């Protein structure tokens, strides 16, 4: 079964992650995160399965994060509100977001990918 990779085609980190996965023969379903961002339910699943804190789902170096004032807003946001904001703007999500059977990886960390694949 392929893993779903939410990515942004212009992102160098996404390109590195995709090359890494392809080089290891991992079956991939690519989804452009700006054209089809993950739903709130998918993001909640990613959060739960990754074991990461909510803040890790946010692309904190992105324009959407800065423009939306999330540095100041995020600490006071509830999970539902934060997931709704992420689902509404794919560029707000840290990428790539890799979803497999029972796991999620947020961003590209080669050591984490090695441990998973």
Query: Which architecture does the CATH hierarchy give at level 2?
Result: 3-Layer(aba) Sandwich
What would you give as the CATH superfamily? Glutaredoxin
Strand arrangement across the biggest beta sheet? 2-1-3-4
Strand/helix succession:
EHEHHHHEEH
For the termini, the CA-CA separation is 13 Å
Number of domains: 1
Helical run tally: 6
Q: Assess the beta-strand content as a share of residues.
A: 15-25%
CATH class: Alpha Beta
Largest beta-sheet characterization: 4 strands, mixed
| Low-pLDDT segments | none
Kindly state the mean pLDDT as a whole number? 97
Which fold name corresponds to the CATH topology? Answer: Glutaredoxin
Structural class based on helices, strands and sheet pairing = alpha+beta
Query: What's the overall geometry?
Result: globular
Q: What is the alpha-carbon Rg in Å?
A: 14 Å
- Per DSSP E runs of 2 or more residues, the count of β-strands stands at 4
Helix content: 40-55%
**How would you describe the oligomerization state of the chains in this entry?**
single chain
Walk me through this protein's architecture.
This protein has 117 residues and is of the alpha+beta class. It has one domain (3-116): Glutaredoxin (3-Layer(aba) Sandwich), CATH 3.40.30.10. The protein is 42% helix and 15% strand. The chain contains six helices and four strands, in the order βαβααααββα. A four-stranded mixed sheet has the order 2-1-3-4, with helices on both faces. α2 packs across α5. It starts with a strand and ends with a helix. The mean pLDDT is 97.
């Amino acid at each position: 079964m392929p893993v779903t990779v939410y990515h942004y085609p212009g992102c160098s980190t996404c390109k590195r992650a995709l090359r890494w996965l392809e080089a290891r023969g991992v079956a991939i379903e690519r989804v452009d995160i700006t054209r089809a961002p993950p739903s709130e339910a998918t993001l909640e699943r990613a959060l739960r399965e990754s074991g990461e804190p909510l803040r890790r789902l946010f692309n904190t170096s992105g324009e959407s994060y800065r423009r939306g004032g999330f540095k100041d807003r995020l600490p006071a946001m509830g999970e539902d509100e934060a997931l709704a904001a992420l689902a509404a703007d794919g560029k707000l999500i840290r990428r790539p977001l890799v979803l497999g059977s029972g796991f999620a990886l947020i961003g590209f960390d080669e050591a984490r990918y090695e441990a998973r694949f």
